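User: For a benchmark we're assembling, each entry needs the component sequences followed by a predicted structure for the full assembly. Here are entry 17's components. Please fill in the structure.
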Amino acid sequence: MMRILPSRLCYVSLLSLLLLGYSCISGCKNPFKTRESPEPEFSEGTWETPALPEIVIQNLFHAYNEKIIGNFSQCLCDSFRFSAPEDSVDAANLGRPDLFADWDRSVEISVTTSIFNTSRQNPDSFGCAVSFLSTHPPDEVGDTLAILSRKYELLIFDLKAVPPGTTLARGTATFHMRQTSLNWWSIYFWNDIPAKEGEDDWADFKAKFRR
Amino acid sequence: MKKCKVNYNRTDIILKPHPLCPHQGEPLYIAWRGENRGRDKNRDTQVYSCLSKMFRSVIQILVIMSFVLPRNAFCAQLRLDFSQDNRTYIWNTSLDCGREVDQGLSWGFSSAINSMLIKRSVFSNNQDRWQDDGKINLNLNYALTSRLKIGALFSQNINSLEKRKVTSSEYGIITEYSISGVRLVQIIGGKDIDRRLKEGKRKDSGFNHRLEISHSPHIFSESVTHISLSQNNSHLSNIPLLERDLSVSFSRNSSGEDSLEFFYLESWSKKKFYSGVLTDSQINTQRKTQRMINLRSSTQVPFKVRVDFDFDFVSSRYKYFGEQDLGSPGLTDNFSDSQNFSLKIKRQFFKRLILASFYKYLETDEDYTGDQKDQKMKNGELGGNLGIRISEKDSLYLTTSIGVTSFYAPEVSARFNDRDILTLFAWGEYLHVFSPIFSLRLEGGFRNFHQVYISNRLSANNNHNQTYVLSPTLIWRPHPKLDLKQNYNIQANYIYYDYEKSIESTKNRLFRRGSSNTSISYRLFPRVSFVFGYIYRYEDYGQLIWKDQWVQKPSWERRTHTFSLSMQYMPAKSWAFSPEYIYEKRKSWDHFTDLVTLKKSRALGDKFSRNMISLSCKYFVDDRNYISLSGAHRVQKSTMGAEETSDFATVSVSRVF
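Assistant: Structure for entry 17:
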């Protein structure tokens, strides 16, 4: 009798714990339920299934110009890194070697959200639009890895800046992509180089929005 | 008893993106490159000649030192890597060595140099583009007494690209004093930073002082406590830097089962930096305050349940002061807090079943002092996994998780980007061993990614992204010399938009892929083996239409055949040669539907072929002592573009003396 007592105690404790857990869960709202979403009033947003590396570039282009952060973030891998070697040397020159350091996915999303929010809230005074040029080096597309380089022009207007004005940033962005069994093609490494030494490029623009 | 220390942790040096490099007494290949910069003539020959000269010089020095000096008094590790990918050449070299010369007197040297050359770069108007990063450290230590050590140190870093160059040097006298468990380290010296740009140069130099006090009190048994306080003061002429750090760490491991680790850091810094053009720049000040707390605990509670709890908290405050109001978005004062915790529960039953469950929570808050850029993010994830050995021949592993990530904007005007992302994930693996020579592995999984925008401006983008995968693999060894492996993979990816399911939307898409991968490996002799591989892959992509069930309207399809044949040959115990040939053929078709007759047809869109031959050769003693060389030549042709020829080469040398 004494031998089975601890075992019974175990079952009773476990049952009590389960009942307690169930009553807690049933009394609370579902923590994994998403918020309600209203019917769309606009049909903004262009995004295609990134079944090919080229489509990732198109999605990035549309997301950047339409300022939709959700579509932009789907272009990036969890292990994403951004590198701007020329701007990094410039930043080190100016005494801020940390400006481009440790630029991972969370930094990229944070920076881009800031750009998109600033642009969407001040459409008359701030904006940016990117375009990729049709001439580019040949794409390197393998089985699960791909490297695509694109020359770009980024038009930025900032009427609140000192002095206010329009800037044309030009350069070459090299996107290293991979595809995994449960994911589409996405960018794991983005390298940015200005068109001419010392000129403004995409990385310069993004760095202004980093802390 | 003489001791020597070698830093075997190579990742610190090799993986650093911008390591610093030597400048004093310029290394052979940098000097050589400086003389020849801009000349395209015979560049390839010069590059290889440079590499071989550098390699030979370093090897000669090390071989002489390792023979002349007593073996137990000198330690060194050398690592040389070279790779060429078409017009990109990369060199990574590193050397660590140290020696205890006499009782109490020792020296250490470490260097790492990384260089990259892009020949006739399309990014630099067809000019050769060089980038160098590297560092060199030299230190000398002498123990005056058991409590007092004195020494000298010198370090130099270089970071250069094209005509930009930043060289920083630090030198100083180091004193280390220990008393009653308290260790006091002081470095007094100087620091120079030389910045050169196309338009001019600027030099900052000044006095440098570093003080570190640390103590490891013995508070509890089976525990280690460490308290450290440090201050770094660089009195540079224009951009002084002052940093202070306080850290406390505690770790306890009781009876090898339960463990507790705690780390606390309080850091403060004030630094000045230039903004604008270096030759006509203004000076700004950044004040940074950072607090960090990490807690890791693992314990066994009643019913043999193991509970792991982790907690991390990071808080950062950045404040900027300028010579004048810059108004730049990059110089906005900002605060950020992030905290996350995870709770894991694990229990093993009858040495056959392992059941585990976890909950993770992450919260971040970015505050730009009332700016419209303020952001908040919350993420919660619940999951579990199960591993069971059903019998001696069967085992099963299942894992699943559900999580929601929510993004909020505190400012009402910025809430159009507020969104939730629901992620559902499930994966299973089943292994059945029919016999010691024949087994089956079955893998399958599902992932659902549901993105929900809260505002009606962007809710048109709300979509489900679902992926299903099933992948069986058969492994058969009919003969000790023959291995056969057959893998099949079926994958389907559905994307459909929440508000467009009922209409024939062009945004709803389906991608499908099926592949088979066959591998035959035959060991002809103990040191010669052949591997033949064949991969067939079918993919199609198209519109997804809802007619009581999902129906696909294909846009394109693609079929790929890949053949590979490789040989592994080991003429001696330490030598391995591996030639390989790969041929790939791919055809893509575009699908059309006649709008009048509704007749479906397809047309060949692209025909692609790739031939690649490669050879690798390796001489190895162990994991840390080896030389490997590999090269590949690839030709690929597509009806969409011109024929492309590419060459790749890598050389790696690792040696521990």
